[in-house]
Design a protein that fits this description.
Elements: H1 3-31, E1 33-37, E2 51-56, E3 61-63, E4 70-73, E5 82-87, E6 90-102, E7 106-110, E8 113-116, E9 119-120, E10 144-148, E11 153-157, H2 167-170, E12 173-174, E13 178-188, H3 198-202
Antiparallel strand pairs: 1-2, 2-13, 3-4, 5-6, 5-13, 6-11, 7-8, 7-10, 8-9, 11-12
Amino acid sequence: MTVNESHKSIWREYFEAILVAVLLALFIRTFVVQAFKIPSGSMLPTLKIGDHLLVNKFIYGIRNPFTGNILIPIGKPHHGDVVVFRFPKDRTVDYIKRVVGVEGDTIQVRDKKVYVNDQLVEEPHAQYTTNFIMSAAEGPRDNFGPVKVPEGDIFVMGDNRDNSYDSRFWGFVDQRDILGKASIIYWSWDLDTPFLSFDRFATIRWGRFGTIIH
């Protein structure tokens, strides 16, 4: 083998290794796990602005990445799951909320309290920032429904109930638009601090690393 042939062989090995790594990364991101960053406080106190988490894309089944249709079913969303999905009003944007209702459920909010199939739901994760009760005529935040969740859809709400733009305002989420279930926080810091500032590193929330999302 000549020197040139040897160099070509080495470069070919590098190229093949990089190509395999890229394809593997794309496969994992498409079908297994994806990183997601929390940009707003709609899921406080469960998730803070600046939390970085991993989303399990495999848990509900293997999907066609273009249509969202389930190719190999594994499971369905359950009450209480924290899910990432394409926002129905703008599918280029990803949202994260908690599943409150699944297909067939009747959902109603009365004076901030959530009822599923006429049963009051205990919600230890829910946060309310004001005692003021908004009437249904003023908006759907505190009094809403009842509505029945259609087949193939879910009803979602943010844990920060007084400050969440969710299914109360814009409707249901098609299960085909669910990207996965939030599983674990792998990084967290304050996004309001300038990125190139040493102060940003002082805001790292070490205690949140490895937190399982419930």
